[in-house]
Design a protein that fits this description.
Distance between the termini: 8 Å
Number of helices: 5
Largest sheet: 2 strands, antiparallel
Radius of gyration: 15 Å
Helix content: 55-70%
C-alpha cells in the first residue's frame, strides 16, 4: 500500500514564536480521546455538540492522522496568524460545520477534519511559496 504523509511545511526565514494555541488544540483533542469523549453533531443533538464534536474522534488512527496534519500545517499557520486569529479561524470553522451538520446532514459528524482542512486552506493562501515535504510510506 502506498501512503503519502505530509512531513514538514517549510517557509522562508526562521519560525517566529511558539504556536501555543495549536499545541493546546492538539492536547485537548488527545485528552478528549483518552477520556472517552464521544460527541457527535447531527439532527436532534444538543447545542453543546456543535462545538464538542470537533474534539472527538472515531478511532485512534482518525485521531493520530488528524493531529499529525494539524501539527504540520497548524504550527506555521498559528505562528503566521497569531494565537487569537488562529483560534478564531479553527473554532469558527468547527462551529460553522457543526451548525451545518446539525441543520442539514442526515447523519452525525465527529472529528476535527473540517477545521483541519480550513487550516490547510489558510496555509495555502498565506504561504503560497512554502514547500511541503512529504514522506511516502
Amino acid at each position: 500500500m502506498f501512503f503519502i504523509l505530509p512531513w514538514e511545511l517549510r517557509q522562508t526565514g526562521p519560525p517566529k514564536g511558539v504556536p501555543v494555541v495549536n499545541l493546546a488544540l492538539i492536547a485537548l483533542n488527545m485528552l478528549f480521546y483518552l477520556l472517552g469523549g464521544s460527541w457527535v453533531v447531527g439532527p436532534d443533538t444538543s447545542l453543546l455538540s456543535i462545538v464538542l464534536y470537533a474534539f472527538c474522534h472515531t478511532n485512534v488512527w482518525h485521531l493520530l492522522l488528524n493531529m499529525w496534519t494539524l501539527w504540520v500545517f497548524g504550527n506555521p499557520v498559528n505562528r503566521r496568524l497569531g494565537n487569537g486569529l488562529y483560534l478564531l479561524a479553527y473554532l469558527g470553522t468547527a462551529v460553522v460545520l457543526g451548525l451545518f451538520a446539525r441543520l442539514v446532514l442526515p447523519v452525525g459528524l465527529a472529528g476535527s477534519s473540517g477545521a483541519i482542512y480550513a487550516v490547510i486552506a489558510i496555509a495555502l493562501i498565506l504561504m503560497p511559496t512554502a514547500v511541503l515535504r512529504i514522506a511516502c510510506l
